[in-house]
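[audit] Reproducing an earlier prediction to check determinism. Same input, same settings, fresh worker. If the tokens differ from the archived copy the diff job will pick it up downstream; this log only records the rerun itself.
[audit] input (105 residues):
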Amino acid sequence: MSSVDKPWKQLERQVAKILESKRVLRKGDQVADVVGRHWCAECKYRASMSVYKWWRQATDNIKVHAKEEKRDLAPVLVVREKGKEALVVIRLRDWQEMSKKLELI
């Protein structure tokens, strides 16, 4: 086995470190990848995802609105599949910042 971590393991470790949580090493038991005080994270690493096309649109929109509002704004992407609950996508660093402000980590 190679001594180099697989990218998905690196992502799980990064999320655990940034959000001051723990990585769950047990796989295949339908458990989360990372567990914090108030949440569980499922981490997915893929070569490509269509969500990034929409993310680029959200970040491009920020430039216009931040200038109009004269303040920093964080991009947020809300996605929903027909018949499913809506999901919110934000940058990991924004989640980290918000979590610290709300004392979630």
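[audit] rerun output stored. Observation attached for the diff report: The chain has two domains: 1-45, 48-105.
[audit] end
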